[in-house]
């Protein structure tokens, strides 16, 4: 008796994966990265202790700050401009970016090393010399690997980005487990683990970089165009830092490293949202630029609405689960030392939802190369953050800090939406950019 098997669902699934392969691979990659970072954060928060974990977080903020600058100056322009390059211009364009990235790494390493030694001279009782080299190496290795993985996404080769991340985060997880097992985990050791694993992921990726060309003229032209594109983004990211990580720095100064440990650990519980936000960050800017280039403002708006609805719904579902029983999750994952901070989990859930809803708007403004509007949104919220961060934390403690961050995210979302809707004032400029009439 012959058994007939309906293979239509299999064909449909295969067709769906093929049609959305770039998005799917990006989500697979980010799911893996976020999962490893989630477990790493749990291990560090649980086994370092709340005070030592807070010290590690304060150090890691500077690694993230350096990575933010690289992303603004080099990676973000690459994700939006590279799809517009003619095929014969790709090797010289990407070769120029490789040189820019190398120069930037040297600057970061020297700056961080000098900064730590200056801080140690000002406060010798802390003795930060052991952390200086580890911090500089961690920042440079982080950016080295991140540039290459973003390069693969920009070149529509997401599988290679996934391989690089598997090597990096897989070795990172293994090393953390070993340090926990031999009871040798500390903040400096954790920084060395981050540096070594990122370096491994980057070095393995290098042989797969396509043949690039280099010339001083192309380097100057690319640097000039990137600067015109990224100057507002960089200023915007600096503004974002002052309305986000600035709260952590002030909290650490006023309330001690333990407060920073509690804040980061509670945020980490809803960090699974990075699967969607960071994963789509590898795709939305490129796709948004393509939709705008082909179909103009209307096609761009339709695409951004679709991505906002899909991503927002997923993040909302995660936020509901995490917020329903926050104390239970804190005790289960971190132990009793983090009890009493459940309300922070609920507030971080709200922050993540508001922050994600702003990302498609930012991608749309970048696709139209209207990056000044992004700066305006961040400038407004940054000024308010600088003015309110200190009194909010001093008067209301951690709760004041969290409500301040929620308010900042909501205000930023409103300003971004207003800027994106201002088509009447920039519609002609946007249409010219979509057809390649503008070069920046």
Summarize the structure.
The protein has helices spanning 8-19, 21-48, 50-81, 90-122, 129-154, 158-181, 187-205, 216-242, 245-255, 257-269, 274-281, 284-324, 326-334, 342-367, 371-421, 423-434.
Structure overview:
This protein is mainly α and 440 residues long. 85% of the residues lie in helices and 0% in strands. The protein is globular. The N and C termini lie far apart (67 Å). Mean pLDDT is 80; it is low at 16-20 and 424-440.
Topology:
Layout: H1 8-19, H2 21-48, H3 50-81, H4 90-122, H5 129-154, H6 158-181, H7 187-205, H8 216-242, H9 245-255, H10 257-269, H11 274-281, H12 284-324, H13 326-334, H14 342-367, H15 371-421, H16 423-434
Give the number of helices.
16
Mean pLDDT: 80
From the alpha-carbon coordinates, what is the Rg to the nearest angstrom? 22 Å
Strand percentage lies at under 5%
What spatial form do the alpha-carbon principal axes imply?
Answer: globular
User: How do the helices and strands follow one another from N- to C-terminus?
Assistant: HHHHHHHHHHHHHHHH
Largest sheet: none
Distance between the termini: 67 Å
Q: Ranges with pLDDT <50 over ≥5 residues?
A: 16-20, 424-440
Topology, number of strands: 0
The percent of residues in helical segments reads over 70%
**Helix-strand category:** mainly alpha
